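Example record for the data management plan.
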Amino acid sequence: MVAAKLGTSVRYVVAAADYMKGRKYPTEPDDLKAYECVMFNARNNETDWDLVCGRKRVRVHVRGSISSRDCQSVAAFVQRGHGIGLVETAHVEEALARDSLVRLLPRWISTEVPVFAVYPTRKFLPPRVNVFLAALAAWKSSLWMSA
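Corresponding structural encoding:
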C-alpha cells in the first residue's frame, strides 16, 4: 500500500448559538467537563479530546449522551443544539460564518490529523489514477490544509 500525504485537518470546539444561550462560555479546556458533549467514536458515552494552543497541549475527558462514528453526524447533532462538539473545520465553516454556531475556546484546536490518499501500489498504476492523484494533491480543499 502507498500513502501519499495530502495535508492536515484540525477540529474546533463549537456549539450551537442556541445551546449556549444562558450558559457560561468555557474559558479553559477543563471547563468542558461540565457540559454535555457530542462525541466522535466515544465508548460508554465518554472520550478524551486532545487540544493544542501554541506549545500547550491538554487532554480533556468529556461526556455526553450522543456519539457517532460519522463526522457529519457529529456536526449535525452539534448544529441542532445537542451539546458541544470537537468538529472538523470543513463541517462548521458555513455555520460559523452565519453565526448559528459559535467557536468556543478560540485559541484551542485539536491536534492535527493527517489526510492521506491511499492506493494499492505504484506498479502498473493506470494513467487515469495518476492524473487523479496529481489533481487531488493540487486541489485546494476546505477539507484539509495543504501538506
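Summary line stored alongside the record: Strands lie at 2-9, 11-16, 36-40, 46-53, 56-68, 84-88, 101-104, 109-110, 113-119, 145-146.
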